[in-house]
Amino acid sequence: MHYLCKRYTCTQYYLMEKVAPTATTPRVLLIYTGGTIGMIEDPATGALRAFNFTYLQDHIPELQRLGFEISSIQFDPPIDSAAITVDLWIRLAHTIGENYDKYDGFVVLHGTDTMAYTASALSFLLRGIAKPVVFTGSQLPVGRLRTDGKENLITALQIAAERQADGRAMVPEVCIFFDKYLLRANRTIKCSADQFEAFASNNYPHLAYAGIHIRYNEKHIYRTPEGEKADLEVSTRIDPHVCVLKIFPGITPEVVQAVLSIPTLRGVVLETYGSGNAPTDDWFIEALADAVKRGIVIVNVTQCESGKVEMGRYDTGIRLGQVGVVSGFDMTTESAITKLMYLLGKGLSPQEVGVEMQLSICGELTQN
User: Which residues cross the membrane (predicted)?
Assistant: First the structure.
């Protein structure tokens, strides 16, 4: 299925910093999609609303001291994080693809509620990427006295511009920077609604830590394996006909059947207990088996914030495997759902999607 953004447009570029450019001066593109970081409080109602992003310079004058070129794009209108749809993912991927050769790195400002979903999706849509795409945002608007947005943005920009001694990007992958930690995008979950440390990567080490210095965890940074195509390939196809089915004690046959009988359904991320366990009632197993026979890809991930699915460990997991449910290993739900959309959008058969879901495309899972 082919989705192109028709609702949202982009403003012109705004030069955030004027420096004397040289052949080695890094150039970073800042993309503002919306979110708390670019909001201002309405004095009458106290509600947060988006303001013209060019005013960010007034709140963070330090941007003028970074020593590299920063241009910006603002999505118009800005999108609330809860209103994110797949067409924005496609628009973001296109925006980065269209500007890929002009910039050394990209910073995407995004609302925190769905940042892990969007960032995970971009990690799959931007295949062969060799430059950093750093998502960040804030829990408080940048105009607030105690805002976390200022440090998040400045550090994200520095990471996006960072190079190795040989000139290659320090972090050539899609990631999230928030409250001192740089995390792989497709390993990240939002873990807190009211703490500055809002994101966590429980199954994979952080890529960098920003203290007095930014210290990179280089052995855990993803780089395109030797022999694989390193040119950027922007995917423009994604299939949203998927859902998440979370198992809970007392779940009824009617609920499961209602979900699995959705006419357009093509994929399910099944959130199970612990290391991949689920009810073994005949009605439940039969419902899953019937869905798999109808071509629905069912991927098993754990409800736990850390750990992984081991479908051969207990009898319940073994039975799921026997009827065709595939393992999601240690993928997050956000990563599994966006990867499933991406693979289904490629036009692969259900069997091919099932195989690909169990392989690492860009560091989103650990099989062993």
Answer: none
What is the pTM for the complete model shown?
Answer: 0.90
Q: Is 239 annotated as a binding residue?
A: no
In angstroms, the CA 105 to CA 124 distance is 17
- To the query of whether residue 188 is one of the catalytic residues in this protein, the response is no
Is residue 95 within 8 Å of residue 54, measured between CB atoms? no
Cβ contact 216:205 at 8 Å: no
349 is in an annotated binding site: no
Q: Is residue 224 marked as binding?
A: no
Tell me which fold the domain 242-358 belongs to: Rossmann fold (3.40.50)
236 catalytic per annotation: no
Q: DSSP readout, 103-137? A: -SEEEEE--STTHHHHHHHHHHHEET--S-EEEE-
Structural contact between residues 205 and 220, judged by C-beta atoms closer than 8 angstroms: yes
Q: Residues 264-320: pLDDT tens digits?
A: 999 999 999 999 999 989 999 999 999 999 999 999 999 999 999 998 888 888 999
Domain 27-234 has CATH 3.40.50.720: no
